[in-house]
Amino acid sequence: MRKKYLIIAFACTVLVQLAFPLKMIFDRELILLKGETFLMEIAPLDPYDAFRGRYVTISYENYSTPLPKKFEYIRDLKELYITVKKDEQGKLIYDQVTQYPPTHTNSYIKEEAESYGFSYTEGEIWIDLPNRYYMNENKAPLAEKLIERAQAEIVIYKGKAVLKGIRIDGMPIETYIKKTNLK
Question: What pLDDT is stored for residue 116 in this prediction?
Fold first, then answer.
C-alpha cells in the first residue's frame, strides 16, 4: 500500500517539474504565433557565457519613449502599458502610454515599476525588450561584425515581447552568413 502512494507522489512530482518549463515554452510559442512582428534598429555586443554559450547581445536604438506629464509624479503606479504600431517599413513606433491595458489592440508592451519607481529619466520611460539572441558558437563572432546593418524582429502580444530573430538585408542572419560564405 505504501509503495502505491510513493509511486503516485513521484508521478505528481515529475508532472509538476515538467509543467513549469512546458508553460514557459507554451507562453513563448503563443506570443510567436499570435503576436505582431516589428522591426527595430540595433547596436551590437557579443559576449560569451561559459554556461549559456555564445550569444549576440543587442541594444536597441529606440529604447525609450516620452512619459506623459500626468504619470511623472504618480508613485502608486505598478505598471504602465505602451501601445505600439508599425511605420511604412514595418519598424516599431511607440504610440501611447496608458495606465491600463489597452482593449483596442493586442500589440502593447507592459512595463512594470521597479522597487524605486519606473525606469525613467527626465520625462522618458525606458522600454525593457529581449536583448539576447542565441546562435551557433562559430557564427556569433561573424554576426557581431554584421550587426551594424541588422534589424531585430520583435514579436509583441498582450504586453510581452519575444526576440524572434535578427535580419540583414531582409533575411535571417544565419541564412545571410551561409549564403555569403563569410568566415
Answer: 40
Kindly report the length of the chain. Answer: 183
* C-alpha 53 chain-centroid distance: 19
CB 58 within 8 A of CB 45: yes
Q: How far apart, in whole angstroms, are the C-alpha atoms of residue 60 and residue 40?
A: 7
- DSSP 3-state of 107: coil
For residue range 90-100, what is the model confidence (pLDDT) as tens digits? 888 898 888 88
Distances (CA, A) of 138 to 58, 60, 141, 177: 18, 24, 7, 11
Give Cβ neighbours of residue 152 (< 8 Å, ≥ 6 apart): 39, 40, 41, 42, 58, 60, 133, 163, 165, 166, 167
Cα separation, 121 vs 127, whole angstroms = 12
| H-helix segments, 35-172 | 69-72, 140-146
Using CA atoms, how far apart are residues 7 and 76, in angstroms rounded to an integer? Answer: 49
